[in-house]
Structure formats: structure tokens, C-alpha cells
TrEMBL record:
Keywords: DNA-binding, Transcription, Transcription regulation
Source species, domain of life: Bacteria
SUPFAM superfamilies according to UniProt: Winged helix' DNA-binding domain
Organism listed in the record: Paraburkholderia strydomiana
Protein's name according to its UniProt entry: MarR family transcriptional regulator
Listed Pfam families: MarR
Sequence ranges assigned to domain HTH marR-type in this UniProt record: 1-147
Key word DNA-binding present: yes
InterPro entries: HTH-type_Bedaq_tolerance, HTH_MarR-typ, Tscrpt_reg_MarR-type_CS, WH-like_DNA-bd_sf, WH_DNA-bd_sf
Amino acid sequence: MSQADRNPPTIRATEAAFLGESIRDVVSRLVKVVREQSGTHSNAQNETLSLLERSGPVSISTLAMRRAVTHQTMRLIVMKLVEQGLVTLTTDTEDRRAYVVDLTDRGRAQTARERSARSQWLTDQLLRKTSHKERAVLEVAVRTLNKLID
């Protein structure tokens, strides 16, 4: 009989809840520190660019829904991004009243630079503060965390 089989379901659920909260907390703090230390602070514009990079071209309404903001707020964010040359607006072929937002090459380059800065900071920290064995454990943890979101 395995240890899991010997633990009552309530104990396993309590342990899982504690682990879940611990993961949420450490991931949240890690994201914050990485952004601060790499100089890629989170803001509405950067988050919108990242969303566009992941999703591809979408309507302003879809962006607003996915970012949990009002259509008006997202329209203002998108207009600032258009002014900066980071996104384009084209008329939606299915709904001529709507617009589709897409990244420009400049927008893609900006998101790539920021992602690279965050990755480089993390790489530097891993090399400075962890052993080979600890990095191997983190590799397993990353695969396990990916199971949770797939």
C-alpha cells in the first residue's frame, strides 16, 4: 500500500490545497521580481502586446474580454499602441463595424526584447544561485507545472 493510499482523502486534499497556494504565491512573486529586475514592468500596453503575440490578430472586443477590461478601456490602450507603431488596426472582414488588432514587426520586436531580458535575468540567477542538481529538480517541476495547465 502506497503512502497516498494510507492518507485519508481529506489529508490529501489539504496537502494539495497547501501546495497549490504555495505554488501560486511563489509563481506570482517570481513573475513580479523577474519583471522588476529585468526592467520589463507589467503594464496594460505590455500585457496587451503579449496577449496579441500569443493569440494572433483579434478584435478589440476579444482583447477586452481576455484582459477583463471594458471595450472603451481596451480601445484607448490599442490607440496608444497604434500611435507607437506597435499594432495595426484593420477592418474586420466579418463585421465591417469592428476592427482587428495585430502586432507590427516593431511590436513583435519589443515583446521579443522584453522576453529576452526576462529570460536572461532568470538564466543569470539560475547560474549564480542554484546547483546543477537543483536545476534538474526545477526541470522536473516545470514539466509538472505544464501538466497543470495543459
